[in-house]
Amino acid sequence: MRVDQIFSRAKSAGCQPISFEMFPPKGELTLERAREVAAGFAPLAPDFISVTYSAGGSGNSAATAKIAHMISSELDIPSVAHLTCISLTRETLAAKIEEFRAAGVENVLALRGDLPAGMSEAEAGEIAFPYAKDLIPALVDARFCVGAAAYPEGHLTCDDLPTSVKHLRQKQDAGASFFVTQLFFDNDYFYRFRELADAAGITVPITAGIMPFTSKQQVTRMVFTCAASLPAPVIKILARYENDPDSLRQAGIEYACRQLEDLQRHGADGLHVYTMNRADVAKAAMSALRAQARP
Q1: Is 87 exposed, middle or buried (0-12, 13-18, 19+ CB in 10 A)?
Q2: Torsions phi, psi of 243, nearest 5?
Q3: Digitized pLDDT (tens) for each residue of the chain, 295 residues in all
């Protein structure tokens, strides 16, 4: 099923799609391991599962289509295949489109991806698809349902939030039919971002992406790779449980569940959980959201 249809049906029913992301540890996720992870998610009946992609044709990129096909064909759960454009040529994109079609992929999340080692921003501007907005039209023409990323605190390479929202509008104008946000730890950033997006004429659904933090090392990595701000409650949790990894992990999951519940109450278009391939994380998130949704 196409993701735009999932959002449309959920809106008509007065609810929000809840989705999960499978993330390849160290850039690798074999089909066999992906099947184990997805089997842990399946009883929770997410509205869709997205499968990440390693840039440059390495790591998980060769398995993305196979994993997406497995999820939709074996588990009957809609899937979204990520695709990064920074290392694509027009020829490799054509090959990737055929690969996705052969695997029955219907939904693609178009992303820029990290610059290859040694490539400058100036050099990136000269390649075939320097930004996700440049990739989206080709995927739409190939009849995929195309999503793209949104950045509630602005992109790591863009200091100006209104400019980030302008880029979001360009992705919508290029044909994106839904957005998934970068992770954030403070919901106020999302609400401010949503107001700016509304003012900019963004009309397609924006689903809020939340990642439960389970260790201080993980939080530190996310802060520097995603430019996510740390609110005081998170800092206090990290300090309180600095020498108690198990309690820190549980507190991080509970904090994420409270974020998701708040986003659900405030009418986010969708809720996307960066699961880190952990069924217990996905289960905690789904349990919290479904408990709150009960009349």
Answers
A1: buried
A2: -105, 20
A3: 999 999 999 999 999 999 999 876 555 678 888 999 999 999 999 999 999 875 444 445 668 999 999 999 999 999 999 999 988 899 999 999 999 999 999 999 999 987 666 666 655 556 789 899 999 999 999 999 999 999 999 887 777 899 999 999 999 999 999 999 999 999 999 999 999 999 999 999 999 999 999 899 988 888 888 889 999 999 999 999 999 999 999 999 999 999 999 999 999 999 999 999 999 999 999 999 988 766 5
- Single out the residue of 203, 225, 223 nearest to residue 213, CA to CA: 223
Which residues have a Cβ under 8 Å from the Cβ of 256 and sit 6 or more positions away? 210, 211, 212, 213, 273, 281, 285
Is pTM beyond 0.85 here? Answer: yes
Domains and their CATH numbers in the chain: 3-293 (3.20.20.220)
Token readout for 186 is: 């403070």
Q: Is 239 exposed, middle or buried (0-12, 13-18, 19+ CB in 10 A)?
A: exposed
Closest to 105 in 3D by CA, of 173, 50, 175, 150: 50
Q: Which residue is catalytic, options 21, 106, 126, 195? A: 21
Helix (H) or strand (E) holding 274: strand 270-274
CB of 6 closer than 8 Å to CB of 48? yes
Q: How distant is the alpha carbon of residue 51 from its chain centre? A: 9
Active site residue 21: yes
